[in-house]
Amino acid sequence: MKQIVVISGKGGTGKTVLTASFASLAMNKVMVDCDVDAADLHLLVRPEIKERHEFRSGVTARIDRDICQECGKCISVCRFDAISEDFRVDAVSCEGCTICSYVCPAGAVVLEENVSGEWFVSETKYGPFVHAKLGIAEENSGKLVSKVREAAKAIAEQEKLDYVIIDGPPGIGCPVIASLSGVDLALIVTEPTLSGMHDMERVEKVSKHFSIPTKVVINKYDLNPGNSEAIKQICQKADIDVIALLPFSRQVSESIVQGIPLVEFTGDGIAGDIAMLWERIK
Ligand code: SF4
Ligand code: SF4
Prior knowledge:
Number of strands: 9
Shape: elongated
CATH architecture of the largest domain: 3-Layer(aba) Sandwich
CATH class of the largest domain: Alpha Beta
Helix content: 25-40%
Distance between the termini: 12 Å
Order of helices and strands: EHEHEHHEEHEHEHEHEHHH
Mean pLDDT: 93
Low-confidence stretches: none
Bound molecules: iron/sulfur cluster
CATH topology of the largest domain: Rossmann fold
Structural class: alpha/beta
């Protein structure tokens, strides 16, 4: 089984549109949405949720008033001013650092696990799909990414699937590193803008750091041929293949509005280009 992650370094480059098209083109695979902070692949693959799991991460302190001796030690050590003068913890301010529980002489601090989100195993007309939703302002998305990847890999092994195709998160932070770890190919989707170029270089360095085979796709290359050329040169210097140049197409936004993967929505040239790209990736 091969694991392929589609990443971009920044949002809005067409990463999810491409991944949804791969869902339509690839046989025998499990799809994964690792963009857990702003998941959107489900809008195009229309999942039917079969399993729903809580994602627990971090703790929030609570003071048991029946045991508390009102010594005030916890208030003096809390760097986040989360404990009031009447020994109540403000759950929003509490960062779960747990220091109050260490200093409390009475054992009155209870650390409660947070439910930070949910993850799902779904069925789609393209096969199994593992995805997640992180709660508002919740942290630890890297841990949630690892969770959904682990579940997808288990499904692929159990059902003897050939591919795990991952829609990665934007940026270069913890969730991206969690998406990249152990994959067989990182496909960077970029666009010919200055921010696209800059963010591609950053994520390429992360990918290189982990020795992951990396290829680049330039989306909407024809909107700025000069910048597309500059991207090619950057890739040449970094010894990375640019394996596809996809043109701008108005069909892309229309396919998103209709909630249909682009390769199924249009017979335009871009659909053929994406099909050829998938053949190359295989
Ligand atoms: S866990 Fe940390 S942040 Fe939360 S109340 Fe205790 S000391 Fe303050
Ligand atoms: S340290 Fe423990 S006993 Fe002292 S005020 Fe805080 S919760 Fe109460």
